[in-house]
């Protein structure tokens, strides 16, 4: 027989049941989630999950709802139709009862009903609509599908009958009775189910026309629940200590399930909300801080064409918020609770938000700059996706999130660019992570103190071609927040006026006028202050000139091993001149501060630097006068190799690190100040130790006009992206983990330049840290 041109057809084995049943839905908690979703999609307002155990110890699970229910035709044409879902847009008809539902559907795969197979070997379905006189009953024995895989799926019969009413007593709805359970559920597993259900439904789900409540009923756990509740309400005379250990919503099995997502806890912290409109044309961002509205910006959505009807709400958790969260949650820490959860049409998408789930690579990004970026441990919140959107489709197993699509990648980019980075800019750069300032009596930065920065960083930094509207809380714009850099104020004002004119927003126009009046008053005061400062600058210039003369009087104390009196007297004279310079600088600063008209921050820092440098030289001269045994010429070239070698051998150098010098076959004569070289070596050694270094290589090389000295350590080295030129600025440290104050490198540069030399950092060196000093011959 050789058939030709025939039409063939697939046959479906009864083994399909396992593929779309317990083999697919392998997690028993997700199996229950799927059945609860079906109740939600059936327009139910109440779902009861019961776990009953008979006297013989046989358990069963009952899930009953008061939804729309199914007719006999619905059972035949839909429920028994494998992989068919009337929830899919193409399967909906105007006559279908589900068209009356006000909700967006949570599921549309057509296999959720097979979750019953994961829970137990047999199922009894009882369902009824309001128009039905009798309730319909379908009995399914899942084991029959496993007897013989050669049988076709449609050959396995299911039994049908009728009863007078639903077991739940509702006029309409569906009840699922699962028997022959595949496993026993203990109290810990029931509590895990309840806690997972608490996060299953978005807080938005009960804000619409149709509320949705889930209740758990486990008679065998009621005595334990009552005992815990009694302990919770009991006052032991020590301030309700028991309440700190028990959370009645999370630690009691029976009762209604309450959504415990972070925003329900009313903890005041920094919050950002980003909403893409239903039509996808606009993005609105709103920032609040500790219950106070800060600003909102509405702009055109040019970048995220595949995204629409999305609501993102994220909270920043500082240490105080973490403590409050743990207290309110009965000991549950934010780390063990989760981070950013994703919901689609009211229901959570697993496993997003679970502890250890690095959503959108947040923690990977955090590792690249832990003091600059936020990680999953510092944020908590949700992303809500609404409406029919085929670009966001769950994996069929329901345990691996969304199928990867361009829209999912776009959502990740939106989250990082429009949510995370905006929150970081405010939290990290403006309010010091929301933590008390140790340098200012544990004061916490408030929005009113940084109004100018808020306007500069957010309001005036948006693209004028995209902005639709802008709003800012006028109370954060006050004189205190604008008492800073006049150039920054003027720039922010111009941008603010441009934004106000572009949007023609009356509130923003009024805000711009308010800022302008306050700015003009501040600038007027600044002009008068600047005139006063000119006179002070002249006095300061004279002080600097005198300080320079005193610096030039510093010389290395020549001496021998007996440390003769002449060396000591000369050294003490130099120390005296340095301390005199320090006294003069301190008196100047004290007079300036007493008058309340201190010079600019840059000037003050410069004077402090001079005080610091003179003090270091005095200290180093005392060391050299007592311990030094070198004989150097005050003028002309000396051997810098011999000086450094003897400085180390005399135990004057910082201990705890191995010094290796090379080469030793040259004197390397050049012009240098001995105390300055000692201070430079000490600063470099100190930085190396802070970076975890154990060895410092000192390599000398003769150049045409210079002697080059390379100092190389084996510490942690530079962070990626560090601007090496900025490291020589006052107060800038080369690595946050070294816990330095950013003074050492600044000081080194000052000393080297005084000796007419140069100093650079090698940014290409990756096995540690390398700094190169060149001294004139």
Strand order of the largest sheet: 5-4-3-6-2-1-7-8
The CATH superfamily of the largest domain is known as Histidine kinase-like ATPase, C-terminal domain
CATH fold node name of the largest domain: Heat Shock Protein 90
Approximate shape: elongated
What is the helix fraction of residues, given as a range?
25-40%
The biggest sheet amounts to: 8 strands, mixed
Number of helices: 18
**Rg, Å, rounded:** 37 Å
Q: What proportion strand?
A: 15-25%
| Number of domains as seen in the coordinates | 4
Classification by helices and strands:
alpha+beta
Descriptive notes:
The protein is of the alpha+beta class and 777 residues long. The chain contains 18 helices and 23 strands. A hairpin with a 2-residue loop joins strand 13 (340-344) and strand 14. Helix 12 (486-503) packs antiparallel against helix 13 (506-552). It starts with 15 loop residues before the first helix and ends with a strand.
């Amino acid at each position: 027989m050789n058939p030709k041109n025939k039409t063939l057809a697939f046959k479906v084995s009864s083994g399909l049941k396992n593929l779309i049943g317990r083999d697919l839905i392998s997690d028993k908690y997700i199996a229950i989630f799927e059945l609860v979703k079906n109740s939600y999609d059936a327009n139910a307002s109440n779902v009861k999950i019961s776990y009953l155990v008979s006297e013989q110890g046989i358990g069963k699970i009952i899930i009953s709802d008061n939804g729309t229910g199914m007719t006999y035709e619905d059972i035949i044409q839909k429920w028994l139709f494998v992989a068919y879902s009337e929830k899919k847009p193409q399967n909906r008809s105007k006559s279908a009862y589900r068209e009356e539902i006000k909700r967006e559907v949570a599921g549309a795969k057509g296999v959720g009903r097979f979750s019953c197979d994961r829970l137990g070997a047999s199922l009894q379905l009882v369902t009824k609509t309001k128009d039905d006189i009798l309730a319909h009953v379908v009995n399914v024995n899942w084991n029959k599908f496993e007897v013989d895989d050669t049988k076709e799926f449609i050959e396995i019969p299911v039994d049908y009958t009728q009863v007078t009413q639903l077991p739940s007593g509702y006029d309409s709805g569906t009840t699922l009775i699962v028997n022959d359970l595949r496993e026993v559920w203990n109290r810990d597993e029931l509590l895990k189910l309840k806690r997972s259900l608490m996060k299953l439904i978005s807080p938005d789900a009960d804000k619409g026309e149709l509320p949705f409540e889930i209740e758990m009923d486990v008679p065998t756990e009621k005595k334990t629940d009552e005992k815990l509740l009694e302990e919770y309400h009991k006052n032991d005379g020590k301030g309700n200590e028991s309440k700190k250990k028990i959370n009645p919503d999370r630690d009691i099995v029976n009762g209604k399930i309450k959504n415990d997502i972070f925003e329900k806890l009313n903890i005041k912290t920094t919050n950002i909300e980003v909403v893409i409109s239903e039509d996808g044309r606009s993005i609105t961002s709103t920032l609040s801080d500790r219950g106070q509205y800060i600003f909102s910006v509405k702009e055109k959505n040019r970048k995220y064409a595949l995204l629409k009807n999305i609501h993102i709400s994220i909270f920043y958790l500082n240490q105080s918020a973490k403590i409050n969260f743990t207290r309110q949650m009965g000991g549950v820490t934010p780390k063990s609770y989760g981070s950013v959860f994703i919901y689609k049409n009211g229901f959570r998408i697993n496993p997003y938000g679970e502890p250890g789930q690095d959503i959108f690579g947040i923690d990977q990004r955090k590792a690249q700059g832990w003091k600059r970026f936020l990680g999953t441990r510092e944020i908590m919140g949700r992303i809500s996706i609404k409406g029919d959107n085929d670009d966001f489709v769950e994996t069929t197993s329901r345990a691996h999130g969304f199928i990867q699509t361009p829209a999912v990648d776009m959502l990740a980019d939106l989250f990082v660019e429009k949510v995370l980075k905006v929150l970081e800019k405010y939290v990290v750069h403006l309010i010091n992570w929301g933590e008390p300032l140790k340098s200012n009596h544990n004061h916490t930065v408030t929005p009113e103190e940084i109004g100018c920065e808020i306007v500069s960083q957010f309001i005036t930094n948006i693209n004028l071609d995209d902005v639709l509207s802008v709003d800012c809380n006028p109370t954060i714009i006050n004189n205190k927040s604008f008492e800073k850099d006049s150039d920054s104020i003027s720039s922010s004002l111009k941008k603010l006026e441009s934004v106000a004119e572009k949007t023609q927003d009356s509130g923003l126009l009024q805000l711009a006028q308010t800022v302008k009046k306050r700015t003009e008053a501040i600038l007027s005061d600044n002009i008068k202050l600047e005139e006063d400062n000119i006179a002070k600058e002249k006095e300061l210039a004279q002080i600097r000139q005198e300080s320079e003369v005193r610096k030039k009087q510093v010389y290395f104390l020549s001496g021998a091993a007996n440390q003769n009196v002449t060396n000591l007297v000369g050294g003490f004279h130099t120390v005296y001149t340095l301390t005199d310079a320090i006294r003069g600088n301190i008196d100047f600063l004290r007079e300036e501060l007493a008058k309340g008209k201190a010079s600019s921050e840059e000037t003050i820092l410069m004077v402090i630097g001079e005080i610091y440098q003179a003090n270091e030289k005095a200290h180093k001269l005392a060391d050299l006068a007592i311990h030094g045994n070198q004989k150097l010429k005050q003028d002309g070239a000396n051997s810098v190799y011999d000086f450094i070698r003897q400085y180390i051998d005399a135990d004057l150098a910082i201990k705890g690190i191995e010094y290796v010098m090379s080469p030793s076959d040259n004197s390397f004569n050049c012009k240098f100040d001995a105390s300055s070289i000692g201070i430079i070596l000490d600063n470099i050694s100190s930085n190396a130790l802070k970076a975890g270094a154990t060895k410092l290589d000192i390599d000398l090389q003769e150049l045409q006009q210079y002697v080059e000295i390379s100092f190389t350590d084996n510490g942690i080295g530079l962070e990626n992206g560090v601007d090496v030129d900025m490291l020589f600025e006052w107060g800038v440290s080369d690595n946050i983990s070294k816990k330095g104050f950013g003074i050492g490198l600044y000081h080194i540069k000052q000393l080297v330049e005084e000796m007419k030399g140069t100093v650079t950092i090698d940014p290409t060196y990756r096995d540690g840290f390398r700094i190169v000093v060149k001294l004139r011959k």
